[in-house]
């Protein structure tokens, strides 16, 4: 579906996008590292077309609503809001490849220690290097690492590259410095005739040590976050309820029903929102691994 939409956008505004393509050359490498399999002209066309569609749609929608309710000032307000939404859409397209690139790098870092142990086991059985990457590509549990291995295997089997050339391409397109060091190291060992099994064992031990260190750091951070959560949710909700009850008893200008509504909103909407944000924060901070 993404390819169909990118083709449609390129046909619609591709000629315009090509005029400004030099201003977005920085996105070319990010698209490759983020594993977004569309060309730079197509992506820029998507950015232009979608941002223009958001701007026009927002102007029609908000212009009608605000003009009917506020008159001419409402139209001006709708125009300003339209520019903001259109700019936000363009900025989102511009930043998205970089965000996805960093996300892939983080996922590769989390699963690479386990994948390297698997590679070491395969190397110990005398499996050839192309077969090692092919087997790794078939193990879905290693996530983004398996996808990187699949590209290496594809370059070898489909495009007829030798293992060294395929690993060099992988090192240039991967967003992970750890994976880049791994494939360069494998290439060096193969070139110099060293022991691939020994190299992979040493590298897996080093990567696993780094993984354990990050898990320990996360456990310390999690303890602090749990204390903050308890303070905000439990203690904070008790204090908030007590304060609103005291205010209700001493203030005659605030109706009890209003305070009850505020408490209901805080309990049934505020606390769940804070809890959801806490879960998202913890999930983003936690080291991954094989799931």
From TrEMBL:
Keyword Nucleus appears in the UniProt entry: no
Q: What is this protein called?
A: Archaeal flagellar protein FlaJ
Annotated transmembrane regions: 43-68, 74-96, 222-247, 259-282
- Compartments, as annotated in UniProt: Cell membrane
The record gives the membrane topology as: Multi-pass membrane protein
* Coiled-coil region: 201-228
By its UniProt entry, which Pfam families does this protein fall under? T2SSF (PF00482)
Q: Where is the Type II secretion system protein GspF domain?
A: 117-240
Give the record's GO CC terms: plasma membrane
- This chain's source organism reads Candidatus Nanohalobium constans
| Keywords, sorted A to Z | Cell membrane, Cell projection, Cilium, Coiled coil, Flagellum, Membrane, Transmembrane, Transmembrane helix
Q: Which gene encodes it?
A: flaJ
